[in-house]
Amino acid sequence: MKFNYKKILLLLLIFTVISCKQEQKDVSEVDIEQNSEELNEYFEEQFQKEVNESPMLQTRLGIKKNYGKWDDFSTEKYAADLNQAKTRLDYIDDIDPQNLNEDVRLSYQLYRQQLENEIEDYNYRFYSYPVNQMFGYHSQLPAFLINMHSIDSISDAEAYILRLRGFPEAFKDIIESLRIREQNQIIPPRFVFDKVIDDSRNIISGRPFEKSANTSTLLADFKMKVEALDISEEQEQQLIADAETALLDEVKPAYTELIAFLENQQKRATAEAGVWKFPKGEEFYNNVLKRTTTTNLTAEEIHEIGLNEVARIHREMEGIMKEIEFEGSLQDFFNFMRTDEQFYYEDTEEGRAKYLADAREIIDQMRERLPDLFLTLPEAEIIVKAVEPFREKSAGKAFYQQPAMDGSRPGTFYANLYDIKAMPTYQLEALAYHEGIPGHHMQIAIAQELEEVPNFRKFSFYTAYVEGWGLYSELLPKEIGFYEDPYSDFGRLAMELWRAVRLVVDTGIHAQNWTREEGIDFYVQNTPNAESDAVKMVERHIVMPGQATAYKIGMNKILELREKAKSQLGENFDIKKFHDVVLLNGAIPLNILEQKVDDWIADNNR
């Protein structure tokens, strides 16, 4: 008997497909919901495990458990986290995403991707600068105490003192991680050291560290919080005395040891800025760009996008020059905007107070118009504050701090007023929209307030999405009539231009061997910002490779998806519903954002 193997194989294949379809049909809606509920419970269980392992996350969430402790900063934590990620991935591997409902399937996709990235990124665990002028532990721990550690009782004050006493152990682990990085040829460029050492010395200056008319930053914070308590004077004085002892006996020696280590390591630092100098530096940078942009764009492609965007924005700026009848070149106009006194606040306490007041007014005006653009609004409040003196010299121009989950702390728009000439009036409007409303505060507060989303997603941070939304939010108000002053509209373009130049300079430094000075020069020649802005930005590129590329890539993708939806939906396009699609899943990678928008377009085209 002659067998027709091809026919048999075909029949087997058909039978397999039919069986799979039948098996899929056998998964009832009840089973799908039960599977989804079980996976959500697992997500919550793992999130709570993260919370329980992190005293600092507990504090950020408004939980006063382990209130006197710091996180584990040891290098052993890397290996523990890797093993945990592998265990979680093993669990996820046993789940069929087709047996989940749509919302949980998205959570599955995001969680799996996060785990795979974490496992892959273990190879680059020492490819960072944990002490740097932007966000190093030397400034983060004091900032955490000042901004996160509230004191509502004597026990809260005692927990604050315990954290002061924990500085030596925390800094011991941090110094060890710096030592291991040096063994792996990872040392910050020379310029970083002076800034970090200076900031560290600022923390241990003033009383009780030295005889001075000034009180140290941490003691001033502790005293202010304790003096607001309803306790006896004797209790108050005892707590302050205990804090002073902890500052002298634990905090000062910790900083002294860190400073000594950094001064010694500085001798071996070089001026080379880019990560190309690292072993496997090119692979590391490609990985960073992939994580930061959540795309597969290469360094060369990002560099080219940046050059094209710079040219486009320059043309739009020239249009504003014609509108105000400015005579001269674009460089002449840049110089005019840099130097004319009408565009700057007074370099006084009154001038700084006016800046903050004007920022609050802009945010309040925008808040009234939110219903024109959004269906979903955040419940959390937002405040505007100046960056604290101890870190203003090296901190960024502006940034946002998310609100507490329980509503005990509002969202905060921080403005760095150390160099008031770097904060021109014409950029304030765009900056307030970016950091406040409808920017980071809208997006982050709404994400935290989502009820049907697992907690791990509420705290996920995809830079291209988050910062892309922030930059998109600078443009959005123009579309409903804001930026009436052409100089403010120029400021909006200047802010967008700044992000476009970032694409050029970040890739220039880390993939094309640009020097720090070449990066600064490109900013100065192509933007109207103060040179001090350019210096800070280039130094940020150097210690945070890839991060600054996210803004423009993210904005471009959101605008691209909006135009796609407008084109395909025509009269059915609704900007409010589009914004819900973008915001109501929390922070997500750009490729998944595109999937969600495509699904929304398809649903509305039926």
List the helices and strands and how they pair.
Elements: H1 5-25, H2 29-53, H3 55-60, H4 76-93, H5 102-121, H6 137-147, H7 154-165, H8 167-183, H9 190-203, H10 217-227, H11 233-266, H12 281-293, H13 299-323, H14 330-339, H15 349-369, E1 382-386, H16 389-392, E2 398-401, E3 411-415, H17 425-435, H18 440-449, H19 455-458, H20 463-475, H21 486-511, H22 516-526, H23 531-543, H24 550-569, H25 575-583, H26 590-604
Parallel strand pairs: 1-3
Antiparallel strand pairs: 2-3
In a nutshell, what does this entry contain?
This protein is an all-alpha fold and 606 residues long.
If you had to describe this structure to a student in words, what would you say it looks like?
The structure is a single chain. Helices cover 65% and strands 2% of the residues. The chain is an all-alpha fold and 606 residues long. The chain folds into three domains: 5-124, no CATH class; 137-271, no CATH class; 284-557, no CATH class.
